[in-house]
């Protein structure tokens, strides 16, 4: 259906806007924002331990909770974007919020009264931060979390909006390629963040190291707003999406005793605003009661709309709720993957005690070793999109390569391998540190190259690339178009849940293993602690999660490895098996 706009249709307007010409503005906005955010966050454990006198476990838990808040707010940002603001406004406001958070964090390095005095190695008791100092620090975290909650789920989907051309047979391939290259561009931005920005922080101090991200955020806001006249700005759904999904569940519960017909859809309510007449799907049939009309005179208004959405919902709303339920099992299988990704704080402490020289007069900053993860991620995505997919298409007839579910499984398996390798490497490092007499000196350099950590970072990069892109594509193609931002937000919210799990795991291990006056496995002095045990726990949990993923896969059926979008008026290929 074409919407008239004066003498032009919406389709005609879209031909003058959007397209590949908008990509530089959108991708540069996200790239600048990511360089600023990751450049400030990656090395932050050192900042908290040095200027706020926090222990390694406490600092890691705080950073984990901050990451959970940033990711958890993505679902809020996605709902506001889809229902009220639109994705353009969400990205614009989110970028401004992040800018404010960066300014406050930079001020903590500029004003001495906002941090505590550094604790020397000879002090047994150090002064902790005051309530005011923590309030300022946490205010910075809050603003950047709100900004990330809007930008992360909406930016990638806003770019997809610019490429949507239903009449173009190549459109699906273009959008799929866009997802891969968008992910690769953010990988390159993160690579710059964990190398250049971290190097500046180590070389020139925190004032300059936090000041440059502030400048980058100014560029991020400016770049995005300059491209505003060229963007396609999709009209929002004025209904509250989350409330509508909740209403569908309540309506189905209230009508739980009515009989469900096996065929026909004359008794189902269709919203006057629906562009197509949908037939309720057969899976989760109990939810179909929410859109069944019992008494037309009581449940419908004269204009055909529902009189009480808590008793009667449209078929479209019920199908949206079903689509969300369908992805939950596969979504939960990705939690452990991101728990494994949250080991960087401890990895920074490990590499800081090792030989990081690659040239006689140049050493890699400890926090920059995650660049090897980004390099592996970028190489995998490039190789997969440009080499593997064409080969697989040529010899097997699969034009899109491996299915999203297969890629997700590969990512989970590789992350399990990475954690096992991390445990082995740390065990070797710790034994060598003790043998050299450094057990009581966590700052002493161990005669061992930090390059031992490169393979585990590379494996994590491949795992994130395979699982992350596969999961976003899986969500995007299974959810209705009206829930596009939620498709991306589900991925981000998964990282929030994982951050909470990781923080809880760290706090629990630190408390349990330090009882009775014992040295915690996660002690700030990692030579006395047992980080290798922590990694073995993560490896075991990752293996159990892989088994859970395989069980979840049994509840899905695949047809021709295709995943058409719900909005294409085709039935999704991945859906839960019908109720017996």
Automatic annotation (TrEMBL):
Record membrane topology: Multi-pass membrane protein
Subcellular location: Membrane
Keyword Transmembrane: yes
Pfam families noted in UniProt: PTR2
InterPro entries xrefs: MFS_trans_sf, POT_fam, PTR2_symporter_CS
Record carries keyword Flavoprotein: no
Keywords: Membrane, Transmembrane, Transmembrane helix
Major subcellular location class: membrane
Membrane spanning stretches: 56-79, 91-111, 131-151, 181-200, 206-226, 327-346, 366-384, 484-506, 533-553
PANTHER family: OLIGOPEPTIDE TRANSPORTER-RELATED (PTHR11654)
Family label: Belongs to the major facilitator superfamily. Phosphate:H(+) symporter (TC 2.A.1.9) family. Belongs to the major facilitator superfamily. Proton-dependent oligopeptide transporter (POT/PTR) (TC 2.A.17) family.
Identification of the protein by name: Nitrate transporter
